[in-house]
Amino acid sequence: MGTGLEYGFSPNWSAAIEYDHLVHGQDRTISLVNDAVVGWLRHGVRQSRIRQDVDLVTVRVNYRWGGPVIAKY
């Protein structure tokens, strides 16, 4: 999901800004083991939650080449 805005400031030029929120599936919880803790493994385990969401902002300036196409007979 996202939103955007584009504004034409001359006949062939425009500027735009766009925001997108990308949801990339479920969150996951994984266990990380600290190898330095040999005898106390239960104390050397840590859990981390991994989120796969991305927030993306795009800013652009556009130039439109050419002009309207006029049919000639």
Give a structural overview.
The protein has 73 residues and is mostly beta strands. It has one domain (2-63). Helix content is 0%, strand content 53%. The chain contains no helices and five strands. The protein has strands spanning 2-8, 13-22, 28-33, 45-50, 54-63. The protein has a three-stranded antiparallel sheet with strand order 1-2-5, with no helix packed on it. The protein has a two-stranded antiparallel ribbon with strand order 3-4. A hairpin with a 4-residue loop joins strand 1 and strand 2. It is rod-shaped. The relative contact order is 0.33.
What's the topology here?
Blueprint: E1 2-8, E2 13-22, E3 28-33, E4 45-50, E5 54-63
Antiparallel strand pairs: 1-2, 2-5, 3-4
